[in-house]
Structures are given as C-alpha cells and as structure tokens.
Amino acid sequence: MVRGRISRLSVRDVRFPTSLGGHGSDAMHTDPDYSAAYVVLETDAEDGLKGYGITFTLGKGTEVVVCAVNALAPHLLNKDLGDIVGDFRGFYRQLTSDGQLRWIGPEKGAVHLATAAVLNAVWDLWAKQEGKPLWKLLVDMDPKKLVSCLDFRYITDVLTEEEAYEILRKGQVGKKEREEQMLAHGYPAYTTSCAWLGYSDATLKQLCSEALEDGWTRFKVKVGADLQDDIRRCRLIRNMIGPEKTLMMDANQRWDVPEAVEWMAKLAEFKPLWIEEPTSPDDILGHATISKALVPLGIGVATGEQCHNRVIFKQLLQAKALQFLQIDSCRLGSVNENLSVLLMAKKFDIPVCPHAGGLGLCELVQHLIIFDFISVSASLKDRMCEYVDHLHEHFKYPVIIKKASYMPPKDAGYSTEMKEESVKKHQYPDGEVWEKLLAAQGN
Ligand SMILES: C[C@H](O)[C@@H](O)[C@@H](O)[C@H](O)C(=O)O
Ligand SMILES: [Mg+2]
C-alpha cells in the first residue's frame, strides 16, 4: 500500500574529484568530476521511509541541475504519494509540461535531468514502501498498470499503448524461469574501468590484467582524440585480451560524420564490436550514415547516454542509425521514460546495452536491465550492461558483481541512497573534501 503526503524535498550538490586521477575521462570530457544532484523526499507517513533520487552530472553542471530540481519542487510538495503513482502518466506530464519550465527544455537538458532526479526518488520511495527492489516491483506489476505509467505522446507512430501492453503480456510467459536465471547467474556486464583516456599505458596494462584475472571478458576503450594514440592503446589492449574477447570503442561525440568513418576504418583491425557516440548525439541521420558505412567492417554503432528523450531514440530506431541502444537511468525522465524506450527497442529488435559510466549509474540501471530481460526482451543475445568500478563505496546498497555479472539487488528500493557521511564530506563547496581542495587551489 502506498502511503503518505510529501512533506519535504531537499536537494544537494555532491561532487567527487575524480578528474584528479583521470577516472572517467574521454575525448570530450577531459576533467570529469563525477557528481550528482541528490534528492531526498520525506513524507508524513509513520513508516519514516524516504525516497532518494540522483541524476548524474559533471562538476559545475550540478549547480544548474540543483536549481532546476528546486524549481520543480512545488509539483511534489504536499502531494499524496498515492495520487502521484496512481496517475503516474499524468504526473510525469505535469512535471514535463510546466508552462514556464518547459521553455528551457522541453524534455531535454538540465530541466530533464532534474525531472529524472526527482522521479528516481519517487520510484525509490514507492519500491521501498512495497518492500521490493525496483526491478521486482516492475516485474510483479500488472502490465496494465505498468503502461499507465508511460507517456506515449510523440511515440504513438511507432508504439501505441495497446502494442506496449501486448509486448508486456507476451513477456509474462517464462517470466518465473528468467527471474530464477537472473537470481542464480546475474546479468552479463562489460567493464570500462581499465581504459579511460587519461590513463597512462602502464595503468591501462595493470588494470586490464587485474580485470582479466577477475574474469572480465568484455572491455571498452576510449578513443577519438589522437589516432596514433588510439592505435597504440587499442593494440595494447587487444594483445592483452586476445582475439576472442569482446572489445568496444567509445569516441564520446568527438568526430564529424566522414571523420568517424575514416577513423574507424583505421581501428577496424582491432575488431571492435561497436563504436559508441561517434558524432553529435543529436545527429540521427549522421549516425545512420556511419552505421551503413561500417557494416562492411563488421562494426556496429552504439549510442544513447546523451540522447535527451524517447523521441530521439524513436528516430534512431526508425532511421536504422544504431545497432546497440544505450539507455541511461538519469538522462531520460526516470523509469517512466526508460520503459517506453525498452519497449520500442523490443519492437525494433535492437539489443539494449545500458550506459553506466558515472556516479551511481550502475546502481540504478541494473534494475532496468534486469526487468528488461525478465519481462520485455527475454533474451541475452548481444546484450550486456556497462560496469565501471568507481565510487560504489559511497552507496548504501552498492552493486554486487559476480563472475562479471550484475547480481539482482535484494534490498527494497532503487539502490539510490548514498551514505550520509559520504554526502556530507563531498557536498560542494562546503564538504570537508572540497574545503581542502579549494583551499589548496587558493580559493
Ligand atoms: C564522462 C563519462 O565518464 C563518460 O566518459 C562515460 O559516461 C562514458 O561515455 C561511458 O560510456 O561510460
Ligand atoms: Mg560512452
């Protein structure tokens, strides 16, 4: 039973100085400080449960998102949680259609990241009140109720509510076995942690050999800034992992369309499964051109971590512009919008390989992809979820990886809650960590 009226919404700017070690660096984000706008919802219910929500950001971008969360707060305050989740589609639309805020979106940019943070907190609270991990809440939910949480506006030309319901209804067959399979073996993952662009060759080598020892079989390497460097690093990693293991490349939007094709022709000898974000995330037809040109080289195109919303995913699918679709738990409008993308991907038969390179993204997105396998795709073919080995220790319910697979979380909620001590220390600018760093920089 859902209960309580939302009595308080707080949001904090939490940053980790990951740029100091080059962690998370790529061809476009050379100094990323992994950060989050961290939302906490409280209710007047006697259970004392709180909802925690994050959206992933980098450094100073966080302060803009924090402002946007505060601007959205009046939509939640004094609302009954039962009314919110009872008409979740209506509530999603209310947030994304705010007559003044939508002008700085709509459904994109800082205001949409803020929507994700706030709604992620609502889903966390809902799952906690039901006493289930989020993936299980979704798996057990009646398909009619599930589709009633989604906003089909702008996507009915490829997916109607009836079709979505039909996909979920069919997904009920064999669900129990797939849930058991997940609980026993987990969801397959790949690692990005060995080969951030700012890492030296020595670090890359060391992390790669450790990852091999830990049983990883799929690796992603950052490329795109300098061709000779890329050739050297890709050769190094391919030699270490051998010809059979899987290698992916990620250019983080660095190239023009023809440049992407030429550059990848030079890296083709290292047999990448995909090139991720070869060009601007907004360039749907550009992705289609690249996809087509890379078919003879056996290289697919992956994208999604910076796709603003379901409309961009719809067009990427319509234009056959991607072979691997990368949802993001904090870029899209929370679980609600991600579910509509999972269902479109199922309709177009494109594998979903979620993005998780960021603060807390592994914690959140594992719920969505485990649900996807159990209730939507029913397949692991060509599918894997990203894993990065950073900052899990700051979460109260950190991911559990066994044999390079995500083991389904068992605690109630969306795994979004951070340790209060970590939040206090890393709050910007007055947390202990930042006070020291800023003082050292003379600020
Ligand atoms: C700045 C970030 O670390 C990105 O480089 C990261 O999300 C990356 O694109 C990824 O695919 O994990
Ligand atoms: Mg990426």
Automatic annotation (TrEMBL):
Cofactor (UniProt): Mg(2+)
Source organism superkingdom: Eukaryota
Domain Mandelate racemase/muconate lactonizing enzyme C-terminal: 201-296
Entry annotated with the keyword rRNA processing: no
Classification via SMART domains: MR_MLE
GO BP annotations listed: amino acid catabolic process; carbohydrate catabolic process
Keyword set, alphabetical order: Lyase, Magnesium, Metal-binding
Reactions that this protein is recorded to catalyse: L-fuconate = 2-dehydro-3-deoxy-L-fuconate + H2O
Molecular function via GO: L-fuconate dehydratase activity; magnesium ion binding
Top EC class of this enzyme: lyase
EC number: 4.2.1.68
PANTHER family noted in UniProt: ENOLASE SUPERFAMILY, MANDELATE RACEMASE, MITOCHONDRIAL ENOLASE SUPERFAMILY MEMBER 1
Homology family: Belongs to the mandelate racemase/muconate lactonizing enzyme family. ENOSF1 subfamily.
Protein name, entry field: Mitochondrial enolase superfamily member 1
Species, as recorded: Physeter macrocephalus
